[in-house]
Specification:
Blueprint: H1 2-39, H2 49-52, E1 61-64, E2 70-74, E3 78-79, H3 89-99, H4 111-123, H5 135-143, H6 153-171, H7 174-182, E4 191-192, H8 194-202, H9 211-220, H10 233-249, H11 255-262, H12 281-296, E5 314-317, H13 321-346, H14 356-365, H15 367-374, H16 379-386, E6 390-394, E7 401-405, H17 407-415, E8 418-426, E9 432-436, E10 452-453, H18 460-469, E11 477-479, E12 503-505, H19 506-511, H20 515-525, H21 527-536, E13 556-557, H22 558-565, E14 573-575, E15 580-584, E16 590-593, E17 598-602, H23 606-621, H24 627-630, E18 639-644, E19 650-656, E20 660-668, H25 678-681, H26 683-686, H27 688-700, H28 716-721, E21 727-728, H29 735-742, H30 746-765
Parallel strand pairs: 1-5, 3-4
Antiparallel strand pairs: 1-2, 5-15, 6-7, 8-9, 8-20, 10-13, 11-12, 12-21, 14-17, 15-16, 18-19, 19-20
Length: about 775
């Protein structure tokens, strides 16, 4: 009986073994067939060795300042290639010890772990290979992302990566594979390659990385989000220490050194550069639009068009990294303070309360409204959605915050913000040194350097220049009278201080920004003279032929004004802004170069330019911009002009030294957004402090030395023409002064009076 049971047991065992063997052979056969199906391209073509040898990553084009600081990148994938010789040995040691310890011994596949990886991937359907994927396989996955094949997704992708990895090993040396891998691997946040990651997390080039920094970056590769040191420093440090232990385990680091480095804290110099973050984002976007157009009209030697996002171009600009930073800091400091004043002044009342149509228009222009409209929703249905609160991230001057708020309330939130534009240009070359188009490019994309707004009184110097060119004298006195211009709808200019009477010299009228005097000068000079001057300065649009033109009612941009002001410290010659110096391809060949362009044409005479500069120096020394001296302590040579438009809509300041021309505009995105009082809304309070803080930072920098206007000798004739008081109670101190001014004797005056009387009698007789 026992023997029978043993026979039955042996028979069952053989049968079980047989079926198990058959099952395993079937599985093996299935995967062998599947492998050859992948190899032959039935699940998608697998690149050949020859194709793999010609791999070219998408490489971001880089934008550099004049002092070779990286400003940003244009990219599809944020990647910059680096040569293997610039990668520190500590980094490659950390990488191999952690990711592929037998890297130099295999030919693309580590046989010791391949079956373990397949079991995990096939039966457990796990994404992680459990450390079995070699660097060559990881590179294959990075170069050719995985695709979806239902239940066979993992085995097909694994076979594909194995085949590509083996072919990569045939196409490249081990060093080349490491270089390609480190230029391809993702570090999260759309950051690809060691060069970009080293800059983003430590603001360094790879060769400058310390051991602990290399280990930290290698540790991120296991899970770029979980081990991101900016977001999760504790988790990142623990993972870094595991990497250091791996290095000690495999002999790349002695245990004492590893233990010592593990005690170091995580220290970052996080520098996030995206399309909307980093230095000069408004400038980079302006430049991008111009470059895309240029590349569309210019081709490579092989006839293909350049691609700004993938060709790895080096773009060198005139922006100065320090001045750009000073400009952005000045705006941040003052605009935060100014916004607080603005919000306090309006309180719970909406600045657009008398113009609700503005908010309706803003709602209809929003991306959410338009997307719902495209889905066929009615206005009422859309507005119901727009009033439904959702969790969203919003901008505040105290940082970004998450808030549950409706899209309508979000739009209203952003409409309350004051904006600012700043442009600084080197006076003699036209090199643009700083460009800030708004308060935060992540949330406010409109560039106010290029926006056309009414310039207010910063337009007046051009009216005065046209008058001087037309024969007026800076010591001509003009009555400060409230005149009604009947032929222009009975319009009357008003002075900001509400004071009238007496007489201002032209010099005093500009220094103190007297509106009545400016309008009188315009009407005496003629619209055509001002129009012709502005045409020569690059503003070819037709200006409105109304007296208020003298007060800056024609719309111009900050960019246009900075260019136009260049005539005053360039002896009457125009200097056009230059912001792109050259473009190089990946090999370093120059494919575009721009030189400074100084117009040879004298748009105004050197004498007129000198006189206007002296007038604007008076505006700083004793006029509307005098707080630059008394409040901000700027004691250098400065000429400048403040400007404020009607109802405090726009605040301006344009100022220049012998070396630098800089301008600032402040206002709302929409003209309805404005201060309620002139005390807070005028240019001397809203715009000029930004300019002052910007210049303070420059003057404190020992690298920058500024010239004095005294180096540009003012002629004796010009000084004589300016030798007069700004203001008089009456035009002439005595009857004798009046005759001297007219160049007449008393006899000639009497004759002229009688002649005029006789002519009047003749006319009456007729």
């Amino acid at each position: 009986m026992m023997n029978l049971k043993k026979l039955i047991f042996k028979s069952d065992t053989r049968r079980a073994v047989f079926f198990a063997g058959m099952f395993l052979l079937t599985i093996a056969g299935f995967f062998i067939v599947l492998f050859f199906m992948v190899l032959t391209g039935l699940f998608g073509r697998v690149p050949s060795v020859e194709e793999l040898g010609k791999i070219q990553n998408y490489i971001a084009s880089e934008i550099y300042s004049s002092d070779n600081v990286l400003l940003g990148r244009y990219y599809i994938q944020n990647r910059t290639n680096v040569d293997f010789s610039h990668i520190p040995e500590s980094f490659t040691n950390a990488l191999i010890a952690t990711e592929d310890v037998r890297f130099f011994d295999h030919h693309g596949v580590d046989q010791r772990s391949i079956f373990r990886v397949l079991i995990k991937s096939i039966f457990l359907q796990k994404e992680s290979s459990g450390g079995g994927s070699t660097l060559s396989q990881q590179l294959a996955k990075n170069l050719y992302p995985r695709r979806y094949f239902l239940v066979l997704t993992m085995p097909i992708n694994k076979f594909r990566e194995i085949i590509i990895a083996i072919r990569l090993e045939k196409a490249y040396s081990k060093t080349d594979i490491l270089e390609l891998y480190l230029n391809t691997v993702s570090f999260g946040e759309n950051t690809y390659g060691i060069e970009t990651a080293a800059y983003q997390f430590f603001k360094k080039h790879p060769e400058e990385l310390y051991l602990e920094e290399s280990a930290l970056l290698v540790g991120m590769l296991k899970a770029t989000s979980l081990y991101n040191p900016h977001l999760h420093p504790e988790d990142a440090m623990q993972r870094r220490n595991i990497v250091l232990s791996q290095m000690a385990k495999y002999g790349y680091l002695d245990s004492y050194k590893a233990d010592s480095v593990k005690k170091l804290p995580v220290r970052l110099h996080y520098t996030r550069i995206t399309h909307n973050e980093g230095p000069a984002p408004y400038f980079r976007e302006h430049l991008r639009l111009e470059l895309v157009e240029w590349f569309n009209n210019n081709t490579k030697p092989d006839g293909n068009k350049y691609n700004i996002y993938t060709d790895g171009l080096k773009i060198y600009t005139t922006i100065n990294a320090d001045l750009q930073r000073y400009a952005e800091e000045a705006i941040k400091i003052h605009m935060k303070y100014l916004q607080d004043q603005f919000d306090r002044q309006w309180g719970n009342k909406d600045p657009w309360s008398r113009n609700d149509k503005m908010i309706v228009n803003e709602i209809k222009k929003s991306r959410r409204y338009k997307s719902l409209e495209q889905l066929g929703k009615t206005h009422d249905e859309i507005m119901k959605t727009m009033h439904t609160p959702v969790r969203t991230e919003i901008f505040t001057w105290n940082g970004r915050i998450e808030k549950i708020i409706s899209p309508v309330d979000s739009i209203k939130h952003y409409c309350r913000f004051l904006q600012c534009g700043l442009l600084a240009m080197e006076a003699k070359t036209g090199y643009v040194r700083a460009w800030v188009g708004g308060i935060d490019h992540r949330y406010f994309r409109y560039d106010h350097v290029k926006a056309r707004r009414q310039p207010g009184s910063v337009f007046k110097p051009f009216v005065y220049a046209a008058a001087l060119e037309n024969g007026r004298n800076p010591c001509d006195y003009i009555g400060n009278d409230s005149i009604v211009y009947e032929e222009y709808d009975n319009w009357t200019p008003g002075n900001a201080d509400g004071v009238y009477g007496g007489y201002y010299s032209m010099k005093g009228g500009l220094a103190h920004s007297v509106n009545t005097v400016s309008v009188s000068i315009l009407m005496d000079t003629g619209f055509d003279k001002v129009q012709n001057l502005m045409n020569d300065l690059g503003i070819s649009r037709k200006l409105p032929e109304v007296p208020s033109l003298a007060l800056g009612t024609a719309e111009v941009s900050l960019y246009e004004l900075i260019q136009a002001y260049s005539i005053f410290n360039n002896k009457g010659k125009l200097v056009k802004p230059v912001y792109l110096r050259r473009i190089e391809d990946q090999s370093g060949k120059i494919i575009y170069e721009q030189k400074p362009v100084l117009s040879e044409k004298e748009i105004i005479t050197p004498g007129t330019a000198e006189i206007i500069t002296e007038m604007l120096k008076s505006a700083v020394n004793s006029g509307t911009a005098s707080s630059l001296r008394s409040v901000y302590g700027l004691d250098s040579d400065i000429a400048g002009k403040t400007g404020t438009t009607q109802l405090n809509t726009d605040g301006w300041f344009i100022g220049y030294t012998p070396d630098l021309i800089a301008g600032v505009w402040v206002g709302g995105d929409h003209p309805v957004i404005r201060f309620r009082t002139t005390a807070l809304g005028q240019g001397s309070h809203s715009a000029m402090p930004v300019w002052a803080r910007f210049m303070q930072k420059i003057y404190r920098d020992p690298l920058y030395k500024f010239s004095r206007f005294s180096k540009f000798k003012i002629s004796e004739d010009v000084l004589a023409e300016l030798d007069c008081p700004d203001y008089k109670e009456q035009q002439f101190d005595s009857f004798k002064d009046m005759l001297e001014e007219k160049g007449e004797t008393i006899i000639e005056l009497i004759k002229r009076i009688f002649k005029k009387k006789e002519k009047k009698t003749e006319n009456e007789d007729k």
